[in-house]
Amino acid sequence: MSPDRFIFGVVMLPLLGAAIAFIAKAFGRDRWTKGLEYLGAFVGLGLPWVVMVATLPLVLEGGALEGVVGLWNPAVGIFYRFDGLAWMVNLLGFSVAGAAWIYSLGSGPKGPAFTAVFLIQTSALAATSMTADIFNLFVCLEVMGIASYVLIASSDKPGSFLAAFSYLMVSGTAMVFFLLGIYGFYRLTGYLSYQGIATGLASLPNFGGVTGILSLALITAAVAIRVAIMPLYGWLPDSHALAPHPVSAVLSGVLIKTPLFALSRVLLLLPLGAQAGELMGYAGAITALVAVVIALAQKDSKRLLAYHTVSQIGYVVAAWGAAIAVGVHTSLGALLMAGAFLHALFHALFKGLLFLSVGTATDTAGERNVYQLRGAGRILGRAGERFPVTTLTFFVAALAITAMPPMNGFASKTFLTYGLKGTWQYSLLFAASLGTMASFIKLSRIFWPPKKSTLTEPVETNPDKPMDPVHPARKIAQGLLALACIGTGLGAPALFALTTELFSSGPRAAGTTLGALARAPQLYSVDTLQTTLWILIGGIMVFLGAGTPWGSGLLRVVRERPRSFRGLFVSFSLGVAGLSAWLLFI
Amino acid sequence: MIERIALFVLFLLGFAVIVGHKNVVKKIFGLNIINNAAVILFVLEGAKVGNQAPILTTGAAVAGAAAGSAGGSGGAVAGAVAQMSGEVTPVALAPAAGTVDSACAAIAEASGAGPGAAAGLTGDLAGNVAEGANSLANLGAFSVVDPVPQALMLTAIVIGVCITALALALAFRLYKATGTFDIDEMYRRIHHEP
């Protein structure tokens, strides 16, 4: 059977799984419900791996499956393209979603309805990664969004309703602007497929003038809301901090990166796309630094992690934007793009792990405040965790995010910053990594032994309270992700080669593959290890500095800065205006 | 032009309600208003080609499909119209530049000039636009609306309904949790509780 017969399995199987899970809801009896729900999850999250494995040889050869969905005639049909990029994004999505679903068995909302919505979201992720039609991209983003609003609200706290509502309003409004962008392109060119729009615009004088620029700016800004770069990140911290832990893991790990890589398809094809990518790259570098300062100021452990997501996506976008600006068919561009993707993939693994392990620790201790909680390892031990899985997995993930060798974060940050060396973005990213180090020293205090004198630990004061034992599903999911973090760290050079190979599918320079163009930089050289040492020392300095009265005063100002619903829209309008102005006057 | 301005005002009105109004239910109304403004804009654009319902007879559908594979959506319309006007000309298969405007031009060619003028179609786009607009007035019954924006907008409306329903459900839960519909008050009550 040829691959184009079953390639839609990655989209349709999760939908089928969702349907099965919904049917499970109709059964009154418990055993049937559970069985059907697990079957649905297996169909939706397990079977797509068969499709992935079956298509791997094809994408490794640099081939791509493309065509029109349902063999409609190309004038009205929807174009798709399943290539190395789509394969990699699906790999990211299905691995993190699978681990998060297993974790959800042991915590938070569960049941057929949760599984069904979760699977719909996964399906939308897969669809977003392979669409090549601008209106279909709109639909995929909306389906993904609607599923994620429901999932954020599913933790059933008032704060999560407000977070979901704010996200819905700002993202819903942004998608109407996206629609206006589609209108502009359709009016100018009469096409909806990326390729058609690109050729149509190229044949117009001045690439469609102001209408073309405005359409591109609207579409890019609407997607940038989903990616949560400055200044459009305002919705993210609340929703990621207040969602159930497995949902936070998927939101942070996968959901904000899929739109980014889907957007790269558009920007790489369209005229002026390179300039839009360049500006996004600059915004990404600034985001990396600013968000980490805000993260350092946070009290709530999950909110701290949520700001780190913004900061790390800033890293990814900085390299991604620079790659788009120089074009991915140059060796520098290929290096940067592969670095950006690897960091996105590795970030999905270690941030997913961080959300899960911190979630386990804070749930067991019943305390989320970084300043209050101490000795989480011991509390977990009393809750029946004989082998300290959660503590160990937390430290694996913390070492990964602070870019300590041999974890995967070290490898991806080395690749990514190697390509940016010598630019001003590099110094911003370096400063951001100091902040990352400092804030993770701060967060790891929840595992430090408690001070003798303090009685602030709520569990200590209430020893009669029965402890909920840590569910084995949580440990399994954390263990899997931790192994993935170490494994991908050790195998990073091979993964780098694979990534450049996969990204090279599509029109390439005659005879050369990008795998040959982009040399992986030496991972363990004196230079990189020296940088790591500087980050470690600098991070400790920043951490100590933040503890001084002056430092903590500054952080309080950052933490208590006013935030409002209106601010989300003001920043979106500013983002659109800034991007349009940049494209008009460059 | 006047419709465009009216839609722009409608859009701004909706956006102002979303940003300016404190009541969350009114904010949801605002989201609906801007969504509808975008929908009407699309439909308006489709209706520039013609104003008949885009219902194809069997033969016309085939011709349209053939033309469509040669060009863009503009081609599809052009092909369909060519069939309706009773003369299948090479025009339907000409590599239409793919714009709505070029569809106008193709319609003009099909009904008026006949096969001889087919070569002119691949010419300058700007010329086609003017030509298409001029001859459109003479076409009358043969002009159908561009069906693609209508199909797109059906999808967009469905999505809009989903978003509205979900937003209203969330607003209701927020009201039950905080006892207010005022967004600033909600922020205050939720973020100042531990």
Structure overview:
The complex is a heterodimer of chains A (586) and B (194). Chain A is mainly alpha-helical. Chain A has a domain at 275-450 and 470-547. Chain A is 74% helix and 1% strand. Chain A is built from 27 helices and 2 strands. Chain A has helices at 3-6, 9-26, 30-46, 48-60, 84-104, 112-130, 134-153, 158-189, 194-203, 209-227, 236-242, 245-255, 258-269, 273-296, 301-326, 331-365, 376-382, 389-401, 408-420, 424-444, 458-461, 472-490, 492-503, 514-517, 526-547, 549-559, 565-585, and strands at residues 65-68, 79-82. In chain A, helix 12 runs antiparallel to helix 16 (331-365). The longest helix of chain A is centred in the middle third of the chain and has 35 residues, at 331-365. Chain A is globular. Chain B has 194 residues and is an all-alpha fold. Chain B folds into 2 domains: 2-47 and 148-191, Helix Hairpins (Orthogonal Bundle), CATH 1.10.287; 58-145, no CATH class. In chain B, 71% of the residues lie in helices and 0% in strands. Chains A and B meet through helix 7, helix 8, helix 9 and helix 27 of A and helix 1, helix 2, helix 3, helix 4 and helix 5 of B.
- CATH-level-2 architecture of the largest domain in chain B: Orthogonal Bundle
Structural class by SSE content of chain A: mainly alpha
Overall average residue pLDDT of chain A: 84
Shape of chain B: elongated
Q: What is the total number of structural domains of chain B?
A: 2
Provide the residue-averaged pLDDT of chain B.
68
**Helical segment tally of chain B?**
8
The poorly predicted ranges of chain B are: 59-141
Strand fraction of chain B equals under 5%
Total beta strands of chain A? 2
- The portion of residues forming beta strands of chain A comes to under 5%
Question: What oligomeric assembly is this protein in?
Answer: heterodimer
The CATH first-level class of the largest domain in chain B comes to: Mainly Alpha
Which structural class do the helices and strands of chain B define? mainly alpha
CA-based gyration radius of chain B: 23 Å
Largest sheet of chain B: none
N-to-C SSE series of chain A?
Answer: HHHHEEHHHHHHHHHHHHHHHHHHHHHHH
Helix content of chain A: over 70%
